[in-house]
Inverse folding.
């Protein structure tokens, strides 16, 4: 089975028959481009294509108007949620507190509802109850989408790169393909905290992340980075969505150990990126050689600007 079709199949298996039949009824060209499937309690089913959200009717038609849409019932939410957690809610405490789980095939299932706070931990979110919305993000392998970035930043020598873009700009997809290409030339340690890059199952990567890549699956970034540097001697370390203080400590440790970095971060422009205090600190310390900006909508996953951070933005 084609891997992309398989990932769509994994997402279908999470759904109730009513929702599944509506999705399957969408014409194949559009169905194969679905980025997200959204279920909102007592509201209408929607899907996202190219960054735009559409309502879906019983015949699989994509609409801007919700009047003929498929209503999402409590059972649709409950069944999908339990299937995503493999019918074992107690086995995924960390994932539930964070509001997402990576299902089979690398699809991320996000959810929200009523937070259960833990007073012993400064009222941090301990769990979530009364789930009201679910978003299934389809993890796609788009082969060669990172070729331009690789050729301009990594083809001649290992370099450090930050990939930036707004939500739904394809950062993870581009990062996954960049692992595939760069991992054929350099020794990579991939810190796959959410199992979205490699989609590891039983120790084997379901996605192609490179022949010389070592995958640290489900490690938090700090432990994954520290361990990778100590035990795998990577030439380049890869991680998705950096930004916390713990991330910065580990990344600085890696850089001081002579390791190059490839990471992603939410930011629409280079100036917006530089306003993020922790990332800005890394830029000022000249940790990154390049910044690649991605677009959205029709430009989703495409390079819109490339900066040498040691020059104007150093």
């Amino acid at each position: 089975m084609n891997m992309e079709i398989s990932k769509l199949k994994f997402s279908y298996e999470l759904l109730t028959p009513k929702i599944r039949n509506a999705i399957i009824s969408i014409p194949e060209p559009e169905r194969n481009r679905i980025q997200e499937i959204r279920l909102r309690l007592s509201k209408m089913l929607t899907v996202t294509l190219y960054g735009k959200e559409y309502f879906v009717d019983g015949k699989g038609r994509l609409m801007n108007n919700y009047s003929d849409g498929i209503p999402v019932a409590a059972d649709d939410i409950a069944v999908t949620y339990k299937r995503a957690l493999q019918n074992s809610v107690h086995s995924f405490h960390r994932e539930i507190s964070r509001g997402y789980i990576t299902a089979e095939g690398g699809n991320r299932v996000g959810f929200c509802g009523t937070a259960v706070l833990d007073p012993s931990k400064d009222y941090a979110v301990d769990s979530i109850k009364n789930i009201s919305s679910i978003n299934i993000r389809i993890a796609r392998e788009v082969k060669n989408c990172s070729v331009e970035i690789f050729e301009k930043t990594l083809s001649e020598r290992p370099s450090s790169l930050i990939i930036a873009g707004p939500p739904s700009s394809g950062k993870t997809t581009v990062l996954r393909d960049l692992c595939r290409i760069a991992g054929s030339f350099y020794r990579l340690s991939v810190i796959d905290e959410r199992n979205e890059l490699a989609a590891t199952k039983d120790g084997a990567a379901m996605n192609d992340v490179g022949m010389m890549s070592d995958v640290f699956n489900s490690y938090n970034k700090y432990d994954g980075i520290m361990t990778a540097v100590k035990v795998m001697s990577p030439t380049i370390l890869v991680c998705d969505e950096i930004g916390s203080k713990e991330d910065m400590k580990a990344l600085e440790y890696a850089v001081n150990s002579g390791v190059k970095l490839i990471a992603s971060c939410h930011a629409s422009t280079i100036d917006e990126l530089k306003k993020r205090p922790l990332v800005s600190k890394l830029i000022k310390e000249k940790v990154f050689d390049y910044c690649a900006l991605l677009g959205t909508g029709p430009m989703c996953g495409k390079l819109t600007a490339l900066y040498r951070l040691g020059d104007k933005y150093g």
About this structure: The chain has a mean pLDDT of 89. The chain has eleven helices and 16 strands. The radius of gyration is 20 Å.
